[in-house]
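Private note to self, pasted from the team thread so I don't lose it. Backbone tokens:
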């Protein structure tokens, strides 16, 4: 395995409710991340693949057995230090990692999710892109092409700035490419926010007992007019600053409670409830889009809610056909008392025996 803090380990999971319990630093979150890696070919917590190789190791290998449409599927993911990531389905290697996205969707609820509210627009765009891509291969295609064209346009602007020259015709090639892919990205994001808002409101009412009305708003210049006239209008600015100042890469989401921005006016408790409601709405969205039941990963959920609300949340997702669920907690007795009342067949796994003393920290 050699994945993060784990040298080697194997689990057989319950088809419904599974819990990893152990003290902080015993590798619970890393096990959830291994499941996420198999589902989406990337870590939920680390943006660089090499960071997932265990300290002192030369590689990692993560394998898992899934069932999709009554078909047994074996997923194998491996990475050598300094090498290229390898992903196989039933021993056949993917030519493109993007072809794997969406086949085994999952949703993570983690303490790190607060970044979606508190950090900049890049985090919220990444949230949108991750969710939409799991259910829409065409969106992922347009997103990849758009990002490539954006990198090339920015590189050209910097090159022309260094050389003190300007070639409008050369820049126009990338303008056309950006415009072509921006339109379907904007439409998909607009539809996504519209679909997610009703579900968000539903789950926030359940979690917060209906005290406020949750909402979200998609913010994009491209809702006003297509990208091409924006690029023309911002041409001198882009030339001066040597980067593309308008487009899909500048979109954002505004999260609201009673029509007020939750980032400025929401309490810590309101923000936690909002994030859980947002992720459950994401779950519903993926379930409908993919016509399959995603995996739900609840990381350190007691950090977000008191024990009574955690019990209500676990019962909700268990009883409403949320499929296979994984939970981490630091208190074995608390976890066992809670989950066994809901599902006597729940599987509990202790991580205390993991010899590595330091659990994965979120990496940028």
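Design output:
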């Amino acid at each position: 395995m050699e994945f993060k803090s784990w040298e080697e380990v194997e689990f057989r999971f319950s088809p419904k409710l599974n819990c990893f319990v152990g003290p902080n630093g015993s590798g619970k979150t890393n096990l959830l991340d291994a499941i996420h890696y198999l589902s989406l070919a990337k870590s939920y917590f680390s943006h660089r693949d090499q960071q997932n190789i265990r300290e002192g190791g030369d590689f990692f290998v993560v394998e898992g057995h899934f069932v999709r449409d009554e078909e047994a599927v074996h997923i194998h993911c491996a990475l050598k230090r300094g090498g290229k990531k390898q992903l196989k389905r039933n021993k056949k290697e993917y030519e493109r990692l993007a072809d794997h996205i969406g086949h085994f969707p999952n949703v993570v609820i983690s303490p790190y999710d607060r970044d979606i509210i508190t950090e900049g627009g890049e985090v919220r765009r990444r949230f949108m892109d991750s969710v939409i891509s799991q259910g829409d291969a065409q969106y992922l295609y347009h997103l990849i092409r758009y990002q490539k064209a954006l990198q090339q346009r920015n590189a050209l602007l910097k090159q022309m700035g260094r050389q003190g020259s300007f070639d409008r015709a050369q820049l126009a090639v990338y303008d056309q490419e950006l415009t072509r892919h921006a339109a379907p990205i904007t439409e998909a994001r607009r539809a996504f926010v519209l679909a997610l808002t009703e579900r968000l409101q539903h789950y926030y009412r359940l979690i917060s007992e209906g005290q406020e009305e949750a909402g979200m708003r998609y913010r994009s210049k491209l809702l006003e007019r297509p990208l091409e006239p924006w690029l023309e209008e911002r041409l001198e600015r882009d030339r001066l600053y040597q980067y593309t100042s308008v487009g899909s890469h500048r979109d954002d989401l505004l999260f609201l409670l009673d029509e007020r921005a939750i980032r400025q006016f929401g309490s810590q408790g309101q923000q936690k409830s909002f994030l859980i409601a947002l992720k459950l709405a994401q779950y519903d969205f993926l379930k409908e889009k993919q016509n399959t039941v995603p995996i739900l990963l609840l990381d350190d959920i007691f950090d977000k809610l008191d024990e009574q609300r955690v019990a209500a949340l676990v019962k909700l997702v268990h009883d409403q056909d949320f499929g296979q669920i994984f939970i981490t907690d630091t208190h074995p007795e608390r976890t066992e008392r809670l989950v066994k009342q809901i599902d006597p067949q729940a599987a509990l796994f202790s991580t205390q025996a993991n010899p590595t003393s330091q659990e994965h920290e979120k990496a940028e």
